Amino acid sequence: MGAAVTRALAAVLALLALAALHLGLAREGPGLGDLAAWLAGCIGIGDGVPAVDAFVLGDIRLPRLLVALCGGASLALAGAVMQATFRNPLASPDLVGTSAGAAFGGALTIVTGAAAWSVVATPAGSLLGALAVTALVFTLARAHDRFAVTSLLLAGIALNTLVGALTSFAVTFTFDNYTASSRVLFWLMGGLDARTWEHAAITAAGLLLFGALLRPAVRDLDLLTLSDDAAHSLGLAAPRARRRLVWIACGLTAATVSNTGGIAFVGLVVPHLARLLVGPAHDRLLPASAWLGALLLVAADLGCRLAPPDANLRLGVVTAFLGAPYFLWLLARHRRGEAL
C-alpha cells in the first residue's frame, strides 16, 4: 500500500510540475516568477501581479491547460476502452467515426458562418456531428438487435471515408475566403488556441460524466478481453456491455475533439504505454492511461506554444509525429508474430 501511495503521489507531482511549466513558460508575457506571484496573490499572500498578467494567466493559459489535461485523459481512456471491447490492440477512438464526425461538424459551423454566433458554436456543431456519425455506424452495424465487432469495424471504416470526403468537400467552399479556409484547416489539424472557460467546462464535464459511467465497468472491461463465451460464463452479456462501453468511449472522444479539433494517436499509443507501466488490469490501467494522456497532451501543447511563431506548429501535427512511429513499431511486431 505504501509503495502504491508513493507512486500515485509521484504521478500527481509530475503532472502538477508540468502544468506549472505550461502556465509559466512562454516566448513572451508572464513567466514562472509571475505565476508564483499570481498564485500567492490568489490566496492573499503578497501583491499579486498586474491585471494584464493576471488575465493572461487566468483567462488565457489556464483554460487552455485544463482543456489539454481533460482532453488528453479523455482520449486515452477512450482508447483503453476500445482496445478492450474490440480485443484489438490497434483500436482507437477514430475507429467508429467519432473523430471524423466531430471534424465534419466543426468544419461545417465554420463554413456556414455559424461559428461567429458564439464561442461554443463550433464545439456544439462538432459534438452533434460526432454523435450523429457514431449513431449511424451503430445503426448500420446492427442486425437482429445485436452487432458484431466485424460489422462495427467495417461500418466505421466506411463512414470515416465518407465523412472525410464530405469534410474535404465542405472545405472547398472556403477556398476563395482565406480567413475561413485557414480556420477550417487549423481546426482539422487540431490545436488549443483561444480556448476559453466554456471550452474547458465542456471538456471537463465530458471527462467527469463519462469517467463516472466508466468506473463501475472495470470488471466488464477485464472480462471483455476474454472471448464472448468466457465472459458469458462469468455472468457478462458481452454484446450489451460492449455497446454500452463503446458509447462511453465515443462520448469521451466527442467531448474532447469538439474543443480541440483533430488530435491523432493519443487514444492508440497511450494505453499501450500505460500497460507497460501497470499491466493489463483495468483498475490500474484506466487511471494510468488518464494520467499519461493528460501528461502527453500538456507536453505536446507546451511544445507548440514554445515553438517559433513562424513555425505555426499545430497540436494534431505534434501528436501524429509522436504517435505514428510507435504505430509502425506495433505493426512491425504484429508482422513478426509478437504479442502487441
Level-1 CATH class name: Mainly Alpha
Strand content: under 5%
Query: Would you identify the regions where 5 or more consecutive residues have pLDDT less than 50?
Result: none
Number of helices: 14
Kindly report how far apart the N and C termini lie: 30 Å
Number of strands: 2
Task: Give helix and strand order, one letter per element, not per position.
Answer: HHHHHEEHHHHHHHHH
CATH topology: ABC transporter involved in vitamin B12 uptake, BtuC
CATH H level: which superfamily? ABC transporter involved in vitamin B12 uptake, BtuC
| Coarse morphology | globular
**How many structural domains in the coordinates?**
1
Largest sheet: 2 strands, antiparallel
Short description:
The chain has 340 residues and is an all-alpha fold. It is built from 14 helices and two strands; from the N terminus they run αααααββααααααααα.
Structure description:
75% of the residues lie in helices and 1% in strands. By secondary structure, the protein is mainly α. The chain has a two-stranded antiparallel sheet with strand order 1-2. Helix 4 crosses helix 5 and helix 5 runs antiparallel to helix 6.
